[in-house]
Amino acid sequence: MRSVMWVLLAVVALGVGVASxxxxxxxxxxxxxxxxxxxxAAVPVEASGCVWEQEFTVRRAALNRGERSESxxxxxxxxxxxxxxxxxxxxxxxxxxxxxxxxxxxxIWHGQVVEVRDAEGRRQxxxxxxVGWPEDRLGGALACTSFGMAALAGGLWPLFxxxxxxxxxxxxxxxxHGVALGGTAVLTLWAQAANDWPFxxxxxxxxxxxxxxxxxxxxxALGALRGDLDDGAPAPFKPRPQPS
Length: 244
Known about the structure:
The chain has four helices and six strands. The chain is α+β, with helices and mostly antiparallel strands and 244 residues long. Residues 233-238 have low confidence and may be disordered. α1 (2-35) packs antiparallel against α2, α2 (133-160) packs antiparallel against α3 and α3 runs antiparallel to α4 (201-226). β4 (103-109) and β5 (112-117) form a beta hairpin. The chain is elongated.
């Protein structure tokens, strides 16, 4: 049952990883379109590909910390009086400092507020903002695919080698190194986002670390097959000395 559970986790992870990988190209094109969008000549009356900066007054801001499935959100009111509801993926650097009646500038693109800038010039993408999505999709693809492949191999291995404790131990080593592969990808994505590193930094940093983890996985799996990781291995036989 444990092996079957790992196989199911692997299938789900691989599905999410493949879906994330298929979205990378579209996310890159959308971010490129946004960065190259011209400024609107006048206030857009409908959703447009040009960029317009609008001043808003913060009516309400909720961090929603500790609330499951609730993103940080704010209600922004333009001079026209029609409020805009915006959400954020995280609270830093602007959302956490928002206060009622504070003035902020919102960047409108395709009829959505995609970025908010405060009085100190700090910028933050909203949940509709296109910047950063390619990195998130790539990080998700690396984490889910690497974990899924290792978990699938480690889950199927014991099913084809029943009654072989050394093979079971080797499969366990493969599975947990898969967890390390996925976790390393998530930590790399976090570091990239926190330091605003470019898109190519993700594979450049995660790749060498993944190779080290794969080398460790191979060494542990081979050691398990040789019996180096056996628990309770019998002590070597020592002949009893004969009386003289």
